[in-house]
Amino acid sequence: MTIRNTDDLERLFEETEEELAPVFRRAEKTAFKNQKKVMDAFIKNRVAAEAFNPTSGYGYNDGGREVCDRLFADSLEAEDAFARFSVVSGTHALTIGLFALLRPGDTLLCVTGKPYDTLDEVIGLRGEKGCGSLMDFGVKYRVCDLLPDGRIDIGALKKNLTPDVKVVYLQLSRGYSTRNTLPASCVKEVCEVVKNYKSDIFVFVDNCYKEFCEEHEPTYYGADLIIGSLIKNAGGGMAECGGYFAGTKKAVELCSYRLTAPGTGLEEGATLGQTKNLIKGLFYAPHTVLQAVKTASLCAGVFEKLGFDVFPKPFEERYDIIEAIDLGTKERLCSFCKGIQKGSPIDSHVEPIPYAMPGYDCDVIMAAGAFTQGSSIELSADAPIRDPYRVYMQGGLTYESGRIGIMCAAKEVALGENE
Question: Is 7 helix (H, G, I), strand (E, B) or coil?
Answer without folding.
Answer: helix
